[in-house]
Amino acid sequence: MSSPRSAHAARPKRSRTRTTVGPVVLGLLVVFIAATAWVGIRGLQAKDALEAAVPLAMSLKDQVVAGNGAAAALSAAELAEFADTARSRTSDPVWRAYELLPFLGPNLVAVREVAAVVDDVARNAVMPLAALAGTLDLNAFKPVDGKIALQPLIDSQPQVAAANTALTRAAANVDRIDTGNVLEVVRSSVTQLQTVTVDTAVTLDGMQRAVTLVPAMLGADAPRDYILLFQNPAELRSTGGIPGALALLHTDQGSIELTQQASSGSFAQPDEPVLPLGDEIRSIYGDITGQFIQNVTMTPDFAQSGALTREMWRLAFGVETNGVLSVDPVALSYLLDATGPITLATGDELTADNAVQLLLSDVYARYEVPAQQDAFFAAAAGAVFDAVKSGRADPTKLLTALVRAGAENRVLVWNADEGEQAVLAGTTLAGARPVSDSTTNRFGLYLNDATGAKMDLYLDVHTAIGQQTCRADQRPQYAVEVTLTNTAPADAATSLPAYVTGGGSFGVPLGNIKTMVSGYGTPEVQNLGVTRDGATVPYHPATDATFPVSTVGVELAPGESTVLRFNWLGARPFSGALELRSTPLIALHEATQLDFSCQGSSQ
Questions:
Q1: Which ranges does the record mark as transmembrane (predicted)?
Q2: CB 570, CB 478: distance < 8 Å
Q3: Higher pLDDT, 380 or 562
Q4: Given this model, what pLDDT does residue 2 score?
Q5: Exposed, middle or buried by CB within 10 Å (0-12, 13-18, 19+), for 259?
């Protein structure tokens, strides 16, 4: 049995243990509370800094567009300060340690990465662009005596390239932020940042391409010659319309001169294509694509259209040009918004509001001879060109007009130099077939007139695109639907000019509209055929540069409407976005969401 003394001696030892553990636990608790408060306070500071940066970014954008370089520089500096605050508040050791905690950690990681992206953009993209805004003035690009100053564009190339690199990096970094286990407020912020960085990166990428390519095309290093092709959507072709008028542009050290004009009648009609077409193009669009200038735009690949046009011009006039540019009357109407009204030699006043009506409708009622129609169109286009060249166009409105026309595929560019054309790859200006990527499947829908007339003034077109998963293996079914309506008056056969109706020259009854419709799937899909008004119809299956194509001919009487649906089966499960690229019509309607059931689908 233990002695009383031994028992008494043991008690103080247990008391010292309790006394030692208590302060340690209390100290750890205090440290944890303090650290938590530290993280919370710094998180709020980062949040406030990021929120303050948003209106600054919007103001900065307006200041850059307005050419207010001084204000842009101040806003950029302030924005960079807020971004640096957000980054520093979310990158210290305590914050990084808390990132290891369950639930809370993923949120802190995401916030830190958001702050880092914003800081990178502010320092390496916004600041260089703001500095550039201080030295560039849009008015400096107004032609003086028909000449545009190229040196400011050349001087801006390093800053624009650096900013573009930063934005591309930022877009990739924000895309890698893991939002699988974060709060909705954090996920929403990341999504918003993704949208902003991607949109801005696209814009800046376009700017870099422009400052790289424009000086070269305007003859900075050597004189250039370009064919200007005017597409007429009153008679549809895949990339817009029939080339009714052409011109030759000569550029040298920023000066631009329209040195020659031509019409479709200026070109010979050879028995064979002027360049090899390949079996695929011949199968879908025929040899006429390479035989007649009116048909070079039947293919949706403007690079091929450009090469054919260049060769036809060489054969007709002995001049080997550097490339081909294309515009349509709707694009000219956008330019007229920048130049203001123009009085033509005929006495007509050409405005942004009446250009399309005058050039695509009134001209046919006024002139019966095709050569006179082409001459009127060429004169109008030349007058708009002269107005822009003279410097009377508002530079901000002119830039807006060009961007809008480019986005709508109404301005196309092909350079014979492969290196220069590579700068345009992936842009709407290149006029390529619809290329898909990991996040978006892009389909195509292209229209070619088979009436042999100008009846597409009365063709109304509405499109829709959608997908449905109907199979056990999760391979999706895709569908593109197009509704075509002939809106011509019931008495079109007698009330419309013969040049508009075609006069029955190609076997189409007066007032009817005949159209060849080609649906392009993505390269990996399986063609499931075409329906018309819900019933399966024959179609021409083909392949165009790995793209599966279905072509159907449709003829509509005045007031008649029909619905075509092109169907494909995907190769693997897909949950991304869908886009439809199509012929730029006189009146554009954005493709709507197509919902369809699995009934009758391939299982």
A1: 21-41
A2: yes
A3: 562
A4: 47
A5: exposed
Which of 448, 449, 458 has the alpha carbon at shortest distance from 361? Answer: 458
Place of tokens 């300060």: 81
Q: For the chain, state the CA radius of gyration.
A: 32
Helical axes 69-89 vs 4-66, angle rounded to 10°: 170
Return the H-helix or E-strand segment holding 469.
strand 459-469
Query: Residue 301 has which token pair?
Result: 């690949």
User: What class has domain 224-421?
Assistant: alpha beta
In single-letter form, the type of residue at position 209 comes to R
Q: Which DSSP category does 322 fall into?
A: S
Return the structure tokens found at 515.
């159209």
- Rounded distance between C-alpha atoms, residue 547 and residue 444, angstroms: 10
Token pair 């494909």 in the structure block, residue:
568
Fold of 437-593: Immunoglobulin-like (2.60.40)
Contact (CB, 8 A) for 511 and 495: no
Please classify residue 10 by burial: count the beta carbons closer than 10 Å to its beta carbon, then call 0-12 exposed, 13-18 middle and 19+ buried.
exposed
> Mind giving me the DSSP string for 4-65?
HHHHHHHHHHHHHHHHHHHHHHHHHHHHHHHHHHHHHHHHHHHHHHHHHHHHHHHHHHHHHH
Average pLDDT over residues 413-434: 92
The structural domains of the chain, with segments of one domain joined by +, span 29-218, 224-421, 437-593
Structure tokens at 197: 């960085």
pLDDT tens for residues 32-88?
565 566 566 766 766 676 666 666 666 666 666 566 667 777 777 777 787 787 777
Cβ–Cβ under 8 Å, residues 465 and 480: yes
Phi, psi of 600 (to 5 degrees): 80, 0
Is the separation of the CB atoms in 465 and 578 below 8 Å?
yes
pLDDT digits (tens, 9 = 90+) for 533-550: 999 999 999 999 999 999
Q: Measured between alpha carbons, how far is residue 6 from residues 3, 17, 276, 374 in Å?
A: 5, 18, 110, 120
Q: What is the pTM of this model?
A: 0.83
Q: Is 197 helix (H, G, I), strand (E, B) or coil?
A: helix
Where b means 16+ CB within 10 Å and e means fewer, 223-241 reads ebbbbbbbbbbbbbbbbbb
CB 513 within 8 A of CB 458: yes
Residues ≥6 apart with Cβ < 8 Å to 269 = 291, 292
Measured CA to CA, the distance from residue 434 to residue 381 in angstroms comes to 29
The reported pLDDT for the residue numbered 603 is 42
Q: Cα–Cα distance between 289 and 409 in angstroms, integer?
A: 20
From the list 541, 532, 528, the residue with the least C-alpha distance to 602 is: 528
The secondary structure element, H or E, covering residue 160 is helix 151-175
Is the pLDDT at 441 greater than 90, yes or no?
yes
224-421 and 437-593 agree in CATH topology: no
pLDDT higher than threshold 80 for residue 142 = no
